Amino acid sequence: MSDLWNLSAVELRDAVRNRNVSAMEALDACLARIEAVEGASGTLYGPETEPDRVHAFIAPLMQERARRQAAAVDAALARGDDPGPLAGVPFAVKDILCVKDTPTTAASRILSNYVAPYTATAVARLEAAGGVMIGKTNLDEFVYGSSTESSAYRPATRNPAGFARVPGGSSGGSAAAVAAGEVMLALGSDTAGSIRQPAAFCGVVGLKPTYGRVSRWGLIAMAASLDCVGPIARTVKDCALALQIMAGADPYDWTTVTDSVSPYADRLDDKTVSSLMRGLKIGWPREYFEDPDLIDPVDGKPILAALDRAAQTYRRMGAEIVPVSLPHTLYAIPTYFVISRVELASDLHRFDGVKYGYRTDRGVGNLFEMYEATRTEGFGVQPKQRVLMGMHVSSAGYAGRLYERALRLRALIRQDFDRAFEKVDVILSATTPTPAFPIGGLYGDTVQMQNADRLTVPTNHAGVPAISLPCGTDTDGLPIGLQLIGPDFTEERLLQTAYAFERETRG
Amino acid sequence: MKYEAVIGLEIHLQLNTKSKLFCGCSTEAVFRRDALPNTFICPICTGHPGVLPRPVNRRAVLLATRLAMATRCQIHEESGFDRKNYFYADLPKGYQITQHGKPLAENGRVSIRWEGGTREISLSHIHLEEDPGKSKMDGGVWLVDMNRCGVPLVEIVTHPDLRSAGEAAAFAAELRRIARYIGVSEANMEMGNLRCDANVSIRPSGETVLGTKTEIKNLNSFRFLEEAVAWEIARQERAVRNGETIRQITIHWDENRGEGRLSREKETEADYRYFREPNLIPVVLDAALRVEAAADLPSLPSERLRRYTEAYDIPEKEAETLIEDRQTSDYFEAVLSRFSGSPKRVADWVRNYALRVLNEPGTPYGSLAELPVTPAYLAQLLAMMASSKISDALGPQIFRKTLDTGRSPEDIVAQEGLRPPEEDDLAVFVDQAIAGDPESVQKFREGNDKAINRLIGVVMRQTGGRSAAGRVRELLVERAMEQG
Predict the structure, then answer these.
(1) Catalytic: which of A147, A170, A174, A429?
(2) Is there a contact between A114 and B49 if contact means CB atoms under 8 Å apart?
(3) Closest to B66 (Cα-Cα) out of B108, B12, B21, B112
(4) pLDDT greater than 50 at residue B32
(5) Least CA distance to B23: which residue of chain A?
(6) Fewer Cβ atoms within 10 A, N terminus or C terminus of chain A?
(7) Is B272 helix (H, G, I), strand (E, B) or coil?
C-alpha cells in the first residue's frame, strides 16, 4: 500500500482504526513520499539546491518521536483501545509552534538553538487524538512574509503546483507539504492570511478559525490580537476533523472561548449539506470584485472568472448570491501595518540573548551592547524592518496619531462584517488577488508582499472565521483559491458550505 | 528667599499571595532568604516563546482592591492591563505587564500624623503589576535571578502633597501600617516587600506652579528615604541659589556614603510605548470579590490613634506604641472590652508588661496574639487589682505565672493562697509589727511619716505580699496613734 500517503486523513484514520493498515505503515508511507519529493530540508543559511524539490520542512524530521507515537497508536489498537479520532494520521507543524524537547526556530537564527520546554495546545490535542507528528515546516522568519522566502532556513520552500513559484506564506512549508503529499495534515498560523494564502497558492484547503476558537498557547506571537492557529489539508473534511480536535477552551489561553465545539467533520453529510445550500444567502462583496486596488481587472481576470463560476455552482445548488459592501476593506492593509508592528515589536523584545536562543559571541562591554549585537546578528531583515516600524508607530509622539487611529479603523472593519452578516450567511471572495507569483518576484518589496494579503487580512481584524479551498486553475495550471467567510463561531456552516462546493467540483 | 519642597512617592508593595500574578509559580522565594536563584520559575514567568499569561491571580486583585478600600480610593468596576516596554536583563519578556491606561483605583486619601497635626495625603492611583526579577554584575558577569519575576505588586502613587523628608517617611510608614493591618502585604522593606521611589522638586514658598522634579530610586528603608529626600532638597536649594537650573534626572541613593549618585541617563522621560496587553481580558470586579475584599476590614491605625488619644486620654507617644502593629492594638482593645477600669491603666500594662515580654532575649513570642496571657486573662488580673482582691504588688508576679503556665490569674490566686488576709488576721500582723519595733513607732509619733514605711514592709513580708498596702498603712497609722 505504497499510495497510503495519498489518502485523506479521514480515510487513513478509518483504515488504521479498522486495522487495515498500521500507524507504522502509514508513517513509513509518508516518510517514503517525503524521501521522494522533499529534497534537502531547510538548514540555517543552507544552500539553494534541487529546484525541482519541495523543501517544505526544517531539518531534521522528528522520526523517532513519530515512530514512538505510531507504535503507541498500534499498541492501543492491539489492546482494543481507541487511539482517538486522528489515529495514525501523520501531520506536520509550522515551526512557529512549540513542541516539547524539539527545536523550535521560527525560521530565525535567533532561535536556531532553542529547544522548547513545552508543547503548544493545538499540537498536544492532535497528538492526544492519535496524530503522529512528523516534523516542523518552513515559514517566513517569525511569520513575517507571504512567500516563505524570508526564512533563514534554506533551501526555500517551493510550490508543488509549479516549482518556480512561491508556496505563499507564511505557512508555505505546511501548505507545500500537504500539497506534495508529504503529510495529510499540517498546522499553520494565520495573522493576515498566512494559512489561506499558501493554501490557495498550493491548491489545498486552509482554515482560519474564529479568534478564540483554538488556543494560541505555544504559538510564538506575531500579533497576539490577530494570530490564529488552524489546519491545512487536502480536503474540507480533514480540516473539519482537525478543528474539532483542536478547538475549545484552554486554561492556558485566556482569549479562548468556552462555547461548545461541534463535531464539525461528522456534520458534513451529503443530506444536511444539500438542504443547507437551498436558500443559503451568500454575500458577494462588491469591493472584492470591482475595486482595482484590491483586484486588478487584467491580472486578476482568471481569478474573477473562477469566482464567477464558483457563484454559478452555488446558485445551481440552490443558494442565493446577494451583493454586500465591505467599504473599509481598502484600509485593512494599512491598519494591519500599524497594529501588527506595534504588537510584534513588543513580542520580539524577549529575544535578547539573555535566557535562551542565539547570543552574540563578539566580546561586548555591557548589557546593551550585547542586546544590540545579538539582535543585529540574530534577526533577519524582515523582523528588523517590522521592529523598527513598530517602535516608531508606538512611540510617545505617534501612538495617538497612528496606533489609536488604526484601532478605530479596525473597529470599522469589524462593523462592515457585522452589517453584511445581517443580510447573508456566508461571504464569498477570492483568497488572493493573483495566483502564486514566481520565486524572487516580489521578495524585497515589503509593501507589495504585504499587499498579497489584502483579501484575507480583513477577517483577521474582524476575528471572524474564513476558509480557502481550490476553485480551478489559471491557464498556467496554477491553483486559484475561493475564500468563504462566516460570522463568529459559525465554522460548522462555513465548513458545510465549503464541503458542498468541493463535492460539486471534484465529482 | 525661602523654598518649599514638593514630594510625591511611588510605593511598590508585594502582595501576600501564594502564587505569581500570571502563572502558578510559588511566590515563596521572595519571603525567604535561602531560595536558590531560578528555582521558582516556569516558561510563563521567564518569557519563553509562545507562552501566554494565565488569567490574573484573583487573590492579587482581591488584595489590591482591599488596599484601595482602606485608602479610600474610587475603585473601577473594570480595569485593564498594558505592556510597559523596555529592555533589561531581569525583565525576561522585555515588557512588564502593568495597568497604565485604566488602573484598578484612583483618587485615594491617607491620613497621617505629622508634627502634632493630622494631614490628608491624596493618592493619584493604585494599580496592579508584575515584579521584574533581580540582576547584578558580579566580577564582570551578569547574574540574573528570575524567582521574583511575576510576583504580584501594587504600586501606590501619591499626588505631590508631601512637604518634607520627615513627612514623606511618615507617609510611607503609615502606608506600611495600613498594608499590614489589612493583611495585604508583609511590607518588609529589608526583604524588598516594600520599595519606595521619591519625586522631589522645590519652589519658592507661596508659589503654586511645580518645579522640575528629580526621581530618587529604590529607597529600601524609611531612614534612607528621609535621608535621601532631605539630601536632595538641600542639593536643589543649593543649586538654585547658585543660579543653576534643576534638570530632570534620576538619583540612586548610596546608603553607605549618605549621598545620591546623579545618573547620566537621558533627561527626557523614557518612552515605554505602552499599549493594551492583547492576551488579557479586562479585570472586572464582581460583587462577590468586592464583598470578600471588604470583609473584616479593620479600623485603620490612624482612626485608632485618634480614638486612643481623644476618647481614652492616652498620651500620643504611648498611643503610637499601641497602634504600631495590629496585634498589639487588637490586644489592647480586647483587654479594654473586658475591663471597665481606666484605659490608661490597660495601656500601661500592655506597654510595660505584655510588650516587654516580646523584647526579652530568646522570647518564643512574635506578637501579642501568641501570648499565653490572653486579653481575657490580663483583664481578669486588672479587675482583681482594681477591686483589691489582690494587692497591686502581686500583679506582676501573677502576670509572670500566667505567662509561664498558661493558667488564669484567678486560678493562680485561688490555688496559691494569694488572696489578701482577712481583716482580723491582718490586725494581728499589725499589732505584732508595732510591738516588734517600738523605735519606729516612736519616730512616727514624733512626726516622721516615713518611719511607718518600715512597719508596712514588715506586715507585707509577714503576709507574703498579699495585703493591699493602702489598707495596711491605714491600720498601722490607727494603731500607732492609739498607743500614744
Answers:
(1) A170
(2) yes
(3) B108
(4) yes
(5) A252
(6) C
(7) coil
From CA B472, how far away is CA B414, in angstroms rounded?
21
Half-sphere exposure of residue B238: CA atoms within 13 angstroms, side-chain side: 6
Q: For chain B, give percent helix, strand, coil, nearest 5.
A: 40, 20, 40
Given a contact cutoff of 8 angstroms between Cβ atoms, the answer to whether A133 and A127 are in contact is yes
Residue among A75, A69, A187 nearest A130 (CA): A69
Question: Which residues, 6+ apart, have CB-to-CB distance to B103 below 8 Å?
Answer: B76, B79, B125, B126, B127
Task: Give residue B427's domain range.
Answer: 423-482
Q: Alpha-carbon distance A390 to A346, whole Å?
A: 8
Common-topology check for domains A4-267 and A270-333+400-506: yes
How far out from the chain centre does Cα A425 lie? 24
Task: Find how far residue B150's CA is from the centre of its chain.
Answer: 26
Average pLDDT (B457-477) is 83
Predicted pLDDT of residue B425: 83
What residue of B is the nearest CA neighbor of A393? B273
AA letter at A437 = F
Report yes or no: B314 at the A interface, CB cutoff 8 Å.
no
**Quick check: B85 and A349 CB within 8 A?**
yes
User: What's the CA angle centered on A447, arms A445 and A453, to 5 degrees?
Assistant: 115
Same domain, yes or no, for B255 and B314? no
What are the extents of the domains in chain A? Answer: 4-267, 270-333+400-506
Give the span between the Cα atoms of A441 and A454, in whole angstroms: 18
Answer yes or no: is B280 within a domain: yes
d(CA B94, CA B91): 5
The separation between CA B289 and the C-alpha centre of its own chain, rounded to angstroms, equals: 26
Note the pLDDT of residue B267: 46
Cell 514623606 belongs to residue: B168
For chain B, how many structural domains are there in total?
3
In contact, B469 and B392? CB cutoff 8 Å: yes
pLDDT in tens, B399-457: 999 999 999 999 998 888 777 778 888 888 888 888 888 888 888 888 888 888 888 88
**B236 lies in the same domain as B333:** no
Residues B402 and B427 grouped into a single domain: no
Last residue in a domain, options B415, B439, B454 = B415
Domain identity same for B27 and B52: yes
Same domain, B316 and B263: no
Residue for grid cell 531534521: A60
> Cell match 497635626: residue?
B117
The CATH number assigned to the domain with range A4-267 reads 3.90.1300.10
Q: Where are the alpha helices (H) located in A207-291, listed in sequence order?
A: 236-246, 270-277, 286-290
Q: What is the CATH number of domain A270-333+400-506?
A: 3.90.1300.10
Task: Burial-class residue B139 by CB neighbours within 10 Å (0-12, 13-18, 19+).
Answer: exposed
H helical segments located in B360-422:
375-386, 395-405, 409-415
ipTM of predicted assembly, 2 dp: 0.94
Which of A191, A258, A355, A366 best probes binding to B when mutated, by most B CB atoms within 10 angstroms?
A355
Task: Cis check for the bond before A170: say yes or no (omega within 30 of 0).
Answer: yes
Confidence (pLDDT) at B268:
52
Give which of A123, A217, A254, A410 to mutate to test B binding, by max B Cβ within 10 Å: A254
- Is B428 found in the same domain as B410? no
Q: What is the pTM of this model?
A: 0.92
Other Cβ atoms within 10 Å of A8 Cβ, number: 18
Within 10 angstroms of residue A308's Cβ, the number of other Cβ atoms is 11
- Bridge-based pairing of strands B95-98 and B141-145 is unpaired
Q: Under a CB-based contact definition with an 8 Å cutoff, are residues B110 and B300 in contact?
A: no
Q: Are residues B115 and B215 in the same domain?
A: yes
| A170 has catalytic annotation | yes
With a cut of 50, which residues of chain A have pLDDT below it? 1
Contact B141, A366 (CB under 8 A): no
How far is the C-alpha of B391 from the C-alpha of B384, rounded, in Å?
A: 8
Do B228 and B86 have their domain in common? Answer: yes
